[in-house]
Amino acid sequence: MSRAEKTSITIVGGGIVGAACALALARADLRPLVIEATTPGCGATAEGMGHLVVLDHDQTTLALTLRSLELWHALAPDLPDAAEWSGAGTLWLAEDSTQLERAGVHAEELRAVGLDARLIAGTELRALEPSLAQDLVGALRVADDRIVYPPVVAAWLLERACALGATLLAGVRLERLERLDDAEELIFADGRRQQSERVILATGLGTGALLPGHALAGAVQPRRGHLLITERTRLKVEHQLVELGYHDSVSARGATSVAFNLQPRPSGQLLLGSSRQDGSADREVDALVIARLIDRGRRFVPGLPAVRGLRAWVGLRPATRDGLPLVGPLPERPSLILACGHEGLGITTSLVTAEIVAAGLGAGTTRVDAHALRPERLLEESALHD
Amino acid sequence: MTDRVKILVDGVELEAMAGASVAAVLLGLDRAVLRRSPGGPPRGALCGMGTCFECRVTIDGRPGIRSCLEPCRDGLKVELDA
After folding, report:
1. Which tens digit of pLDDT belongs to each residue from A256-265?
2. CA dihedral of A208, A156, A82, A56, whole degrees rounded to 10
3. How high is the ipTM of this complex?
4. B53 to chain A: which residues are within 8 Å by CB?
5. Alpha carbons B20 and A373: distance in angstroms, whole number
């Protein structure tokens, strides 16, 4: 089979992470080759909410999401209308005074890192969001969170990358990798081969299959989530509404957990989530989970059950054991770089991931400490004893 | 010879081929507008294959049914939101 000339950098995966890496590297004149098995942005990228959110459940995630939002705001003016960049920020809802106190602590932490974050209570909350239940004590408003439509963004990022010298091969499936002395050989499903000095795996749940026998082969596992989109409705919602209990849901492992998360789309539709379940890659919708989403939802937005649901689906988040993505080269195989395992923050942190990957290749800098994202951390002595 | 069946569309009896989709039958009778989007703009079948959700009508009292996927049978009741 024909062998093309060796290329310097290949990105496997045309989802939002691969697309962001492609643009970052193309901007640095590195002319990356991008391999996408089907269509750009149509995998996990298309399954989530597209909520660009600052999360502070640990310092690393805070640093990643903070820098990410900066990058998103810088990118926003260039995004096409179809990317649906929109939103008035996030309202983290408190059901009782304990939660409100916790929200106050978050508000201080977020303000300390320069964000527009403050507590909203009583009449101000009702004025801001009339559709909220009257008995909610208050909310933390993070004003600069936003919403995008990820498949369009991924496709657009790749388009921009190609305009700057990247090459996209869509509909081409990578079957396996063969390690060469100081490079990688990519073997495609159709038998074609391509050598590349370095390969970036932005392959989410598909990463393990490309590392057979490797200690990290099982590092990215599915974390199943349900979403429901409604018909266009006159029910007015301005912010993304998330219950403070969401934080607990994200860190809990085990049976299916549900946490209220409601997003107004620019179309006038509402997108309702969210659920988490480990140990299942089943793509069939579980009606009981949808019922739980609506049940939890009506507690915060009493008018929700009257809105007609249009369609529900299941998405599989690519998750790691410690909730942080794997970004960086394999220490024993530096020609292979991972950029995967972003769980529910793939859209948000795609841009900072690209910044980190580019910096690792000498193409730009980053002030984010990427040490916490090194893939080998999951194999280190202390990690093995967890 | 294909079976003919009688369906009701907003209370009016119409004849249709058994098994033809409700959307196809309505389109054949120049009824392209099946509902209205909030604010008034007309909507109807676009993809004709169950993926766009634009052709939703009420069938036998059940709202939100994709008419392009619903086969006509005798006595079927269609209500449009147009």
Report:
1. 999 999 999 9
2. 50
3. 0.72
4. 310-311
5. 57
